[in-house]
Amino acid sequence: MTHQLLDITGKICLITGGTSGLGKAISVGLAQAGACVIAASSDPDKVRAMQIELAAMGPGHQAVALNVTVPADVDRIMQQVRQHFGRIDAVVNAAGIHRKQPSLDVTMEDFEQIIRINLTGAFVVNQAAARVMKDQPPDAQGCRGCLVNIASVSSFMSLTEVIAYACSKSGVMGLISGLANEWAPLGIRVNGIAPGFFPTNLNRKILEGTPRGEWIKKHTPMARFGDGRELLGAAIYLISDAASFTTGETIVVDGGFLTKGA
Predict the structure, then answer these.
(1) Which residues of the chain have pLDDT under 50?
(2) Do the domain assignments include residue 144?
(3) Would residue 259 count as lying in a domain?
(4) Model confidence pTM above 0.85
(5) Nearest-angstrom CA–CA distance, 5 and 84
(6) Residue 223, SS3?
(7) Tally of CB atoms within 10 A around 130
(8) Cβ-based neighbours of 237, under 8 Å, separated by 6 or more
(9) How far, in Å, CA of 153 to CA of 162, rounded?
(10) Into how many domains does the chain fold?
């Protein structure tokens, strides 16, 4: 019975930021788990490469161009997915950017760009998805769709020289709790995943072979960085029927980093 609850075969899943980094790891993993994946990105080259990779995994998957900071673009993709597949079961919002910079040097443009993509973009995606999901037929538990937002350990604690990123991811936590509360009556579940330290193209230069990276590993009880595939279990759970009574929660996947004190 338990394994049936975790079965996501055939679920229609849109992943923003789904062609690179942690978003790509989730896209590939969900496709391997049997979901029908639509991986979205604002980078046309990554969209084309991802389309080839997904096609090799089987029919039905798609890669699409999407800019999360443009509401009309997000609405267009949501309607396109709904019209093509008949519904949207889950949206994983993994689109985001990261920049390490002393706070005294952060310009207004730097700060606003990160907030616009990581936080405002997350709201735009959640809102557009909910507008589609609220009109879908519910399942046996009354769920019409689920939203999974990628937060961060910086949603919970202070990290130096990433102030805009930390503010954006703290805001994502506010979205998760606020939207979960407001949209539960609509049959929409809203949850999050807070990764610890996973080397990607966004952060690899500040993590691998650096004093900061070595300190992070020493502060992590499991004494290593994460692999993007290690987020898949949390993603599958939150998308699956096993999470039918789970909303407003954020699962931390950090090798124990937050549990270790000073």
Answers:
(1) none
(2) yes
(3) no
(4) yes
(5) 26
(6) coil
(7) 22
(8) 6, 243, 246, 251
(9) 12
(10) 1
Neighbours of 233 (CB within 10 A): 14
Instruction: Print the domain residue range for 52.
Output: 2-252
Q: What is the pLDDT of residue 198?
A: 94
Name residue, tokens 């790891």.
25
Residue 261 belongs to some domain of the structure? no
In a domain, 180, yes or no: yes
Largest CA distance in the chain: 55
pLDDT reported for residue 2: 53
| CATH number for position 177 | 3.40.50.720
Q: Which of 99, 113, 97, 105 minimizes the C-alpha distance to 205?
A: 99
Give strand ranges (E) for 66-196: 90-93, 145-150, 188-195
**CA–CA distance from 56 to each of 24, 32, 48, 52, 188 (Å)?**
15, 11, 13, 6, 32
Do β-strands 90-93 and 250-253 pair in parallel, antiparallel, or remain unpaired? unpaired
pLDDT at 86: 97
CA angle, 23 as apex, 225 and 38 as ends, to 5°? 155
Nearest Cα neighbor of 151 from 118, 127, 126 is 118
pLDDT at 102: 95
3-state secondary structure of 41: strand
Q: Is 34 exposed, middle or buried (0-12, 13-18, 19+ CB in 10 A)?
A: middle
Catalytic residue IDs: 165
